[in-house]
Write a structure and sequence with these properties.
This protein is mainly α. It has 2 domains: 169 residues, Ribonuclease iii, N-terminal Endonuclease Domain, Chain A (Orthogonal Bundle); 69 residues, Double Stranded RNA Binding Domain. Helices cover 50% and strands 9% of the residues. The protein contains 9 helices and 5 strands. Strands 3-4-5 form a 3-stranded antiparallel sheet, covered by helices on one side. Strands 1-2 form a two-stranded parallel sheet. α3 crosses α4 and α5 crosses α7. The longest helix has 36 residues. The relative contact order is 0.13.
């Protein structure tokens, strides 16, 4: 589990190397972000007392549903890639005896939305996440919000402090929760991907076929295609949620047909 590190052992963030648009930031928001960094074991530099140095983290913790000028999406995209690299490195260090195939399957669980949501819950990311009124009232979507925000934070930390800062955020959580190679339950997308690869069907393809509703509260329709199977469609308040629902529906169909 992530625990506050002693000041002398904390990873120290460097200044950001990527230009970020700054949202208005009052003293309360600045203190909120600084406290969050300390809570996850990172010590900001003196420069972080300025709002500009905290702009990447502020952007990461501003969900699209808030309807502000910037949001978490581009940092979530970056964080997804950083997360996979960090997970590969972590498994090389902690599970080196596993085959490449087994590591690949375990990595899929370490980077899953379920684990990201647990990480977000552990570090109380909800308390610093800006979201819109509609998203705030959607209890069923809270786990997805936490997962998306964690990926965006990983992207922001990478921008500010490189891979070391991202490692400091996630490695301790993985190490404290990984009981063994079979510990994490598979999410539907990972389970479907493993089954499809084992059957020689290639990777499932997810396509956005419709987006409805206002920008701050969209509804996505995803079509899941897999060689030799009828497509499956599902809806969700985020692309990831819709993709998981489509994968889950296809898995249930395969189970009913006796193919799993």
């Amino acid at each position: 589990m992530i625990t506050p590190a002693h000041a002398e052992n904390r990873t120290r963030l460097t200044s950001c190397f990527h230009p970020f648009v700054m949202l208005p930031m009052d003293a309360a928001r600045r203190q909120q972000l600084l406290s969050f960094l300390q809570r996850i074991g990172l010590e900001p530099p003196e420069a972080a007392l300025s709002a500009s140095a905290l702009a990447p983290l502020d952007e990461a913790l501003t969900h699209t549903s808030a309807g502000l000028a910037v949001n978490h999406e581009r940092l979530e995209f970056l964080g997804d890639a950083v997360l996979r690299l960090a997970a590969s490195e972590f498994l090389e260090m902690e599970q080196s005896s596993l085959s490449v195939g087994a590591r690949s399957a375990l990595r899929a669980q370490l980077v899953s939305d379920r684990w990201l949501a647990e990480l977000g819950d552990h570090c109380a990311i909800d308390t610093v996440l800006r979201i819109g009124a509609v998203a705030a009232g959607d209890r069923t979507g809270r786990a997805t919000l936490r997962a998306e925000a964690c990926e965006a934070v990983i992207g922001a930390l990478y921008c500010d402090g490189g891979l070391d800062a991202a490692r400091a955020f996630i490695h301790a959580f993985w190490a404290g929760n990984l009981a063994g190679p079979s510990a994490p339950p598979k999410d539907p997308k990972s389970a479907l991907q493993e089954w499809a690869m084992a059957q020689g069907l290639g990777l499932p393809a997810y396509t956005v076929v419709a987006t409805e509703g206002p920008a701050h509260d969209p509804l996505f329709t995803i079509r899941l295609s897999l060689a030799g199977l009828e497509p499956e469609e599902a809806e969700g308040k985020s692309r990831k949620l819709a993709e998981r629902r489509a994968a889950g529906a296809l898995l249930r169909r395969l189970q009913k047909a006796g193919r799993i």
